[in-house]
Amino acid sequence: MTGLKRGTVQLISHQEEWNENAKNIIQVLNRLLGNMAIDIQHIGSTAIPFIHAKPIIDIVAGVQEVDDILPYIELLKQHDFIYRGEDVAGQILFVRGNFEDDTRTHHIHVVKWRGAEWNNYINFRDYLNTHPEKAMMYDACKQKLAAQFSHDRKNYTTGKQELIDCLLKEADNWKSER
Question: Model confidence at 178, in pLDDT bands (50, 70, 90)?
Answer without folding.
Answer: confident
